Amino acid sequence: LQLVESGGGLVQSGGSLRLSCQGSGAPLDDYAIGWFRQAPGKEPEGLACISTRDDSTSYTVSSKDRFTISFDAAANTVYLQMNSLIFEDTAVYYCHLEGTDYWGQGTQVTVSS
């Protein structure tokens, strides 16, 4: 199983991005998959998690109200829709299969102020 993130880039403050975490080698259904980020010089930070079994979701304070996590079984992909981006959202974003050592390689998000 591999997780491959994409969708990062440079965006102006107030803009939006949709990150993708595509699984290859195995279906992602029946897992808990989380999005995390790490800014330079800071500790990794959890953002959101989804159960691909029943689509239940949870968010942290950092992501609540601005980010939405979702799962598309046909695409075998977990998404993170990010709106109203601010400079402090600048980080490398990773997806992770909870309870395993499977992490994606990360995708850089840079928000210009």
Explain this structure to me?
There is one protein chain. By secondary structure, the chain is mainly beta. Helix content is 0%, strand content 52%. It has a six-stranded mixed beta sheet, with no helix packed on it. The protein has a four-stranded antiparallel beta sheet with strand order 1-3-8-7, with no helix packed on it. It is globular. The termini are far apart. The model has no long low-confidence stretch (mean pLDDT 96).
Uncertain segments of ≥5 residues (pLDDT<50)? none
Order of helices and strands: EEEEEEEEEE
- Give helix % range: under 10%
Shape: globular
- Major sheet summary line: 6 strands, mixed
Mean pLDDT over the full residue set: 96
SSE blueprint and pairings:
Layout: E1 2-6, E2 9-12, E3 17-24, E4 32-38, E5 45-51, E6 57-59, E7 67-72, E8 77-82, E9 91-97, E10 107-112
Parallel strand pairs: 2-10
Antiparallel strand pairs: 1-3, 3-8, 4-5, 4-9, 5-6, 7-8, 9-10
In summary, what is this structure?
By secondary structure, this protein is mainly β.
Attribute tags:
mainly beta; four-stranded antiparallel beta sheet; 10 strands
